[in-house]
């Protein structure tokens, strides 16, 4: 598939999606929402892809909804419908993708882009990156999954503070709050993200995906429900090639050769 607003590259089991409207700080117009959703779908279908990295071209990760497009389309649809047909599909596609997604947050993530960053599984931020819930600056509430994801990660008090102040939270504070997994020098971000992605792409992809499914499911259940779900999902993992290979490799004192299945 070819895309115009994003770059999509696959190398050694890793798909890299680069948001590519740098002149608008990678703001999302409708085409970019659709293409990013399609790219994650493509990554899910392609067995050769075992890890996905999403990043931005230029100085920003993304400035969220393209506000010029926002004004133009006001006659055609409501914000609610726009969210349902656009960002909701993207966020669900990411959350349901049973392969690890690394967010390589290269600069500011604002508005809906914070939701997209939060829908990645591991966030590595450049030391120059920041997170801004820009919504309240234009009289909106957070969307794109932010109200669900952010309080779970950093707690309601900090999430609400971010929402109503629209302050830019710098990478080091994001790390202290648990919003990102690592902060690295900006010049090394692409290399560090690629190395981490490469190592994940050589891992037991099925187990990684099932772990994501079990952890997401656990939000919606009590402990007995979560224990039962773990047992069900572990049965699937326990029938995999990679489980057999992992155990054999341990007993034979050699490195495991996972196939991702
Ligand atoms: O529609 C729905 O479904 C509802 C969904 C809403 C979701 C949302 O995301 S709402 C929030 C939308 N985003 C924002 O409100 C952020 C707007 N941008 C900014 O506040 C600032 O640009 C930043 C703080 C992100 C960065 O500031 P700065 O000073 O580093 O850069 P800048 O000069 O403001 O931006 C550079 C250019 O990008 C500039 O264009 P120009 O003047 O050089 O031609 C600017 O207009 C453009 N740009 C930046 N963000 C957007 C944008 N153009 C359109 N939409 C943007 N979001």
Question: Could you describe the 3D structure shown?
Answer:
The protein has helices at 30-45, 67-72, 79-85, 87-96, 112-118, 146-154, 156-165, 171-177, 189-201, 205-218, 223-238, 241-251, and strands at 6-11, 14-19, 51-56, 60-62, 101-105, 108-110, 122-126, 130-132, 168-170, 182-184. It has 261 residues and is of the alpha/beta class. The protein folds into two domains: 6-201, 2-enoyl-CoA Hydratase, Chain A, domain 1 (Alpha-Beta Complex); 205-252, Lyase 2-enoyl-coa Hydratase, Chain  A, domain 2 (Orthogonal Bundle). The strands form two sheets. It has a six-stranded mixed sheet, sandwiched between helices. Strands 4-6-8-9 form a four-stranded mixed sheet. α1 packs parallel to α4, α6 (146-154) crosses α7 (156-165) and α10 (205-218) runs antiparallel to α11 (223-238). The longest helix is centred in the N-terminal third of the chain and has 16 residues, at 30-45. The structure holds ligand T3D. Ligand T3D binds at residues 24-25, 27, 63-68, 70, 79, 82-83, 108, 110-112, 134-135, 137-138, 140, 143.
């Amino acid at each position: 598939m070819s895309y115009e607003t994003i770059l999509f590259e696959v190398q050694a089991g890793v798909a890299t999606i680069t948001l590519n409207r740098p002149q608008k700080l990678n703001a999302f117009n409708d085409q970019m929402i659709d293409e990013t959703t399609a790219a994650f779908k493509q990554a899910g279908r392609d067995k050769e892809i075992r890890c996905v990295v999403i990043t931005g071209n230029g100085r920003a990760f993304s400035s969220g909804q393209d506000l010029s497009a926002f004004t133009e389309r006001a006659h055609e649809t409501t914000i609610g419908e726009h969210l349902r047909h656009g960002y909701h599909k993207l966020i669900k596609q990411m959350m349901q993708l049973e392969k690890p997604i690394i967010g390589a947050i290269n600069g500011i993530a604002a508005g809906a882009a914070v939701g997209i960053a939060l829908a990645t599984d591991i966030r590595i931020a450049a030391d120059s990156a920041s997170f801004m819930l820009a919504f309240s600056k234009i009289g909106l509430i957070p969307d794109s999954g932010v109200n669900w994801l952010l309080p779970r990660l950093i707690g309601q008090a900090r999430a609400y503070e971010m929402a109503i102040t629209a302050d830019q939270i710098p990478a080091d504070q994001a790390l202290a709050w648990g919003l990102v997994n690592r902060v690295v020098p900006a010049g090394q971000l692409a290399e560090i993200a690629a190395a981490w992605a490469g190592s994940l792409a050589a891992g037991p992809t099925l187990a990684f995906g099932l772990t994501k499914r079990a952890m997401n499911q656990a939000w919606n259940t009590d402990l007995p429900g979560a224990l039962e779900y773990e047992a069900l999902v572990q049965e699937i993992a326990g029938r995999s090639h990679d489980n057999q290979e992992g155990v054999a490799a341990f007993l034979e004192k050699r490195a495991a050769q996972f196939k991702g299945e």
